[in-house]
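REVIEWER CHECKLIST
Item 1: Sequence provided? yes
Item 2: Single chain? yes
Item 3: Sequence as submitted:
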Amino acid sequence: MKNIFLLGSTGSIGETTLKIILRDKNKFNIKLLTTNDNVSKLLAQAKKYKVKKVVIFNKSELKKNIHKFKKNKIITFATIKEALRNNKKKSHLTINAISGIDGLEPSLDIIKHTKNLAIANKESIICGWKLIKKELRKYKVNFIPLDSEHFSIWSLIKLENKKHIKQVYLTASGGPFLNKKLENIKNIKPKFALKHPNWKMGKKISIDSATMMNKIFEVIEASKIFELDLNKFKILIHPKSYIHAIVHYNNGLTKFLTHETTMEIPIANVIYENDYKNITNNNFNYNKLNGLNFIKPSVKNFPLLNILKYKIEDTFFEVILVSINDLLVKEYLNNRISYISLHKFMLTLLKKPYFTKYYKFKANNINEIKIMVKKTNRYVKKYLEIYEKKN
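Item 4: Structure as written out by the authors:
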């Protein structure tokens, strides 16, 4: 049996992973589950999959609910470090599905306890890839990108010489507002922004998809993971979401990878490795390739694409970018700022001298990243308070 650590088990990626494992539970042994505050779901998962160790990152939720787990003979911890302090055997695979920058520290803490690390958390790679890569090399851990686009690129180029790559295209669905002008949806409510046409995703990533921020993150992430210049990447809108990545080579050949719009496919391929398993809805859908429709995204409708003009090279810029976006998306979801403000505030805040002075410095450790996240959050909250008073 293969031992698996699953971080962020109560989110959509975590739930999909558990669903796959349930079909073949005699092959896999889940040794650790984590959540931030979805404690009831975590308890149900731990009981169903007979998991004896769980981590609840939210300390107040941990304190409130510790007795429920104790009653079911499940040991609770507040951190990955505590949970694995006396761990002697490496897990075969760790999947990190924790959303946002909160996923970085657990990634760093778990690397030495696993043979393979699959990350579906783009923010942690964007902000701390240099730190992650250092730990991966130190403990000789194999890394697999789990986002559908990055898994597709990884699958296409893993046997190729990277110097032969001319261009990599990441596809975007265009989100729920593809055919709408930004000026006509400037006050649109979050419930409409959450209606992704193709994917079933969490709230945060759904908003990022609507604004194209998700694709901006993916370009930055891909540049780091595959060690390719940022200018090697382009974004194409592909409303059918059937083609996930296209790689064009100097020899004139172009390869692309397709699969249905479900994370079940990349996750199952990571879990089973070369031991191929039938996956639900895995038939080739040639109709989706008929009349392929690729569109160059409009900066007018997706102004956040201007972010890719910044010099991006493993500095505090990426930490600040992710932190501002996390906070603004939260404000929008809570109906405290408008849809257009989400764009305007992001582009305005990135130019503030308070932030730009940090764009030439690099983070040396996780604590420096944490400090920058706190600084960014404080500044943005104050900025929004002042703006609200004036308006």
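Item 5: Key structural point noted by reviewer: The longest strand covers residues 28-35.
Item 6: Recommendation: ____
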